[in-house]
Amino acid sequence: xxxxxxxxxxxxxxxxxxxxxxxxxxxxxxxxxxxxxxxxxxxxxxxxxxxxxxxxxxxxxxxxxxxxxxxxxxxxxxxxxxxxxxxxxxxxxxxxxxxxxxxxxxxxxxxxxxxxxxxxxxxxxxxxx
Length: 129
What we know:
By secondary structure, the chain is mostly helical. The protein has one domain. Helices cover 48% and strands 0% of the residues. The chain has helices at 8-13, 61-85, 97-127. Helix 2 (61-85) packs antiparallel against helix 3. It is elongated and about 55 Å long.
């Protein structure tokens, strides 16, 4: 028997069923495994909640994914500015654009699988009760 996650944030981050918090939302539970990356189960293994209420349900998660990616890029810019302010690196948005772009692209590539699944988990938790 799976352990229950009770808070909405906990269900989203752990990618659990939005209804019961016990069953896992995705076929492949690892967020960094690219095998069946975004494949969502048909229903919860614990409470039988339907995870695919209509065809194309998860297309809206692209908006959530976009927002998460923008937030990540803003966080990277703020982190680089803070590192510059405390003297760890030399960074200026207009004087060192390569630093910002390479850091942002690197984080985007590394975190893509997690952000992709997280956006679907947020979308499901917003509409499946």
